[in-house]
Amino acid sequence: MNFTKLLFNSKSQTRYVLLSRSYYTNRLNKATLYSRISPLGSPDKSVEAELEDWLKHGNNIRVAELQRIIHDLRKRKRFTQALQVSEWMNRKGLCAFSPTEHAVQLDLIGKVQGFASAEIYFNKLKDQDKTDKTYGALLNCYVRQRQTDRSLSHLRKMKKLGFASTALTYNDIMCLYTNTGQHEKVPDVLREMKENNVSPDNFSYRICMNSFGVMSNIEGMEGILTEMENQPHIEMDWNTYAVAANVYMKAGLTEKAIDALKISEQKLDNKDGTGYNHLISLYTSLGDKAELDELEEAEKVLEEWESSGNCYDLRIPNIVVVGWGLVAASYLDKGQEREAFECMKAALSLFVEDKKWKPNLRVITGILDWLGDEGSVHDAEEFVETLRRKIPVSREMYHALLKANTRHGKRVDVLLDRMKADKISEDEETKTLLAMKYS
Known about the structure:
By secondary structure, the chain is mainly alpha-helical. The protein has helices at 3-7, 11-23, 33-37, 48-56, 63-75, 79-91, 99-113, 115-123, 132-144, 148-160, 167-179, 186-195, 202-214, 218-229, 238-250, 254-266, 273-286, 292-307, 318-333, 337-350, 361-373, 377-390, 395-407, 413-421, 428-438. The protein has a domain at 359-439.
């Protein structure tokens, strides 16, 4: 079972890796402008010196490359550096800023300097640049900082100008109400969208589903889900059913949560590491509520995730390791020691010292007992060797090795010497095991 490996990639980590890989090509290894900017370290470190130095050495700078750099820096949440590139490009007059470029810069100003600075930038724009894009960017700045009055006032202006014609605008307002705890207002925004002939998108529906969930209105959430399923322009995706599963879980409706997770899994692209991570986290949250078939389903998801190729990122979020540990404990409690052993091996293979997770000693002891009583010498030695690299050596580890070797008629002199070297003294159980060996 590979439950931990599925939980392994956090959204931000997966996004970072994919973006890094997508930017570079295998065609050239020579230095590029991005290769100079990317490793600058702190997201707050200035990139203007690198841009000026690049020009100073006679290198060309293409507008498309700068736009690509800005895009990647935004995706990696290096907003200060992205803003520096945008402002430098504008100041150098490398291209005439269209409403799209202005909207990007406005959004970055809002993220880095706050909505007040974004307002100043917006007010200085020429009338032809005050389009739905720049109006929308300013609205997003207000929403991000939970400025309810400013957001609603700005929305009214957008409506008068005919700029509130896309789902994105209404989604911003629903996010505002969500972030300010006014979940009861979210369904009204969805209703208004439809009345104004603006088609909700997947995100619109998911926000509303989540709000119904927060309000413990399961019927309302299910109504939205059914409406989505009947909309020809909506393509049902894994994320929607994951939202439903989360709502069911919080309401204690475990069976419905599991059904939703299974549908979510069916709709998940096997290359979507982020999606698998999220599903694993939900399976983990089920904890001891999940019966054996759900554990097997979680194992299936993890194995599919491994086959997606997303398990090769060495930066493993804690939730993946925790997931393997929980599933191992569940199997052990059900008397399925072999499965528990395999799951704990997966957890330990991903565990690094700086993670908050620590192996459950009860589970470790149970697995060691099983290895000593029923496991092979190879499995016992391999497991103990892995444990020694993760946690302090213990008498229980040696007892498992002693029992396994004794059962298979092997000598234990070397083991006893190792015990002494590790300063593990013999206790009554050790003596009993040795007596059985030589009886």
